[in-house]
Amino acid sequence: MTEIKDTGAELKLSRRLTALAQRVPQGARFADIGTDHALLPVYLALEGRIGFAVAGDINAGPVNAAKRQVAEAGLEEVVSVRLGDGMAVLRPGEVDTVAIAGMGGSLMARILEQAGESLQGVETLVLSPHVAEDAVRRWLTANRFALDDEALLEEDGVIYTLMRAKRVSSQEEAQSIEARLYDERLLAPSLERISMTLLYEMGPLLLRSPGEDFFRKWEQEISKRERVILQLNHAVAPEAAEKAREWEEDVREIKEVLACLRAEKRSSN
Predict the structure, then answer these.
(1) pLDDT at residue 4 tops 80
(2) Signal peptide span per the entry (predicted)?
């Protein structure tokens, strides 16, 4: 928990929001989409990290709470709180850095896909999907944003994924970066290949430097998938057996990848 004291008010930031704040470039023109209480833009403004911010939310309650937070900090001239759906709160070219957190990856990818001209001028995306991280990584790949940072952070028993991606100037450069990033022979020769599906699910940078949170997250994921397999094996629908086989193959590959990574960590110690 990070605490700073502003003009008479005390602002507390969770470890996850602090980690997201650390990934915002110095001097950014910043937008926080789904801002809730505007904690992130207020914190960044008080720290002198940003000169301007938009705090947007689709619901009136959080917008009102955000306005109170901004007013208490004396930042009405710096942080603009707006009610609206996704990135529709932004004007083209208004910001260069956007943060989206606290929602599933499929919704996050949909918000980015529907952004249209609101993405003009945006060079950095700071993202924290709590599920379906692969949907976000696939959107980034398809839209010339390249991951330059991935991390996992556990807080209150939940393991969060943090990502930062930078816009790539040309399609040719984007393709070159993605070919290196999503390399199916990443773990060779220990593992001949890792499927593209798992590269997107597990994270190409996280796979390159897995920590204990990574192994814990994927052991939990194996347990979840094995429970689904058990349910499918008891189902009477004819397609259930085929689906169970697909999930069993996924679990087999995940276990193989984790075993390979653990062996590499042991050999490097």
Answers:
(1) no
(2) none
Domain extents for the chain?
Answer: 2-181, 196-268
Looking at residue 8, what is its pLDDT?
44
Structure confidence by residue, pLDDT tens digits, 153-171: 999 999 999 999 999 999 9
Q: Is the pTM of this model over 0.70?
A: yes
Cβ neighbourhood burial of 217 (10 Å; 0-12, 13-18, 19+): buried
Residues 172-196 have a mean pLDDT of 94
Q: Dump the DSSP string for 173-235.
A: HHHHHHHHHT-TTTTTTTSS---HHHHHHH-HHHHHS--HHHHHHHHHHHHHHHHHHHHHHT-
CATH of 196-268, one of 3.40.50, 2.60.120, 1.10.287, 1.10.150: 1.10.287
Measured between alpha carbons, how far is 130 from 237 in angstroms, rounded to an integer? Answer: 31
